[in-house]
# Entry
Amino acid sequence: MIVDCHVHVIVPEITRDAAPREAWRPLVRVEDGRQVVEMGGRAIRAVVHEFVDVEAILDQRASAGIDHVVLSPLVTLLFGDAEPEEALERGRIQNAALARIVRAHPGRVSALGAVPVQDGALAARELRAVMADGALAGVEVPALVGGTPLGDERFEPFWEAAEATGALVFIHPTTNGFPVPAMQELYLFNLVGNPMETTLTAAHMVLSGLLERHPRLRVLLAHGGGAVLALRGRLRHGHAAVAAAGGRLSEGPDASLARLHYDTITHDPGLLAVVATFAGAERVLLGSDHPFDMADPDPVATARAAGLDPDELGANAARLLGLGAVA
# Structure
């Protein structure tokens, strides 16, 4: 079974159409034959495939050779900068809708929900409730929360709950980028800014000792982990030679980096092969980033070009997701 672990969806229940007077909701409209998402005064025009209709999403992924999809929210719908209680209620709308989708498509759909990760204790309670329900396999979280990386101690209750419940935690960049003028040119907020966010939070999680304290965490990094593996030598040297980088981690950084999972969205089979060689093919999951313009149009071919078996990557996903557990 070939599993696409990186497929985004906007469930109809969260859209403006479901509650037209609630301005925080995303408005999805069609412009020049493509879906445009308006939210918070920002229009997202990077959508090139179906975003809302699950049946259409499944058909489009099947045409790319995908047997099973893992749906996760548009990252801005995680509301990482909202008040925690607001994020909680908005996440629950999506979690309930995603659970219905999973149960309506046994064997074809898994899903990752949303919790208010900005409040570690509240996120922990909600994650335990999500996992107790049994429909969702885990949650998606933003790489930075108000600019804070996920290895910060404020998130410790959430990580404790994630380890205890066996939830898969999918870390995805916020797409907000960094306050650098050059990032607003040449699409660099996405090309560079998105993987930079993942790189920053992954490095922080490693050097803070988070992954050493919680070795049973199931964490998936988007976009091949950004550049964190390209920087493993610097992390290794800094940990050994610089007090500020070495005080919280007893083992070398490589051990923590090898505990993470990485999707295949590198747009470079040679680079993907490096990821698999370092982390082990069993730590790699196939992904596309549907429905965006930066999606891999043929992730199955990318995996094969990197010397990876897409069915084995699917088996990796099955182990993490507990496929078949929901009837």
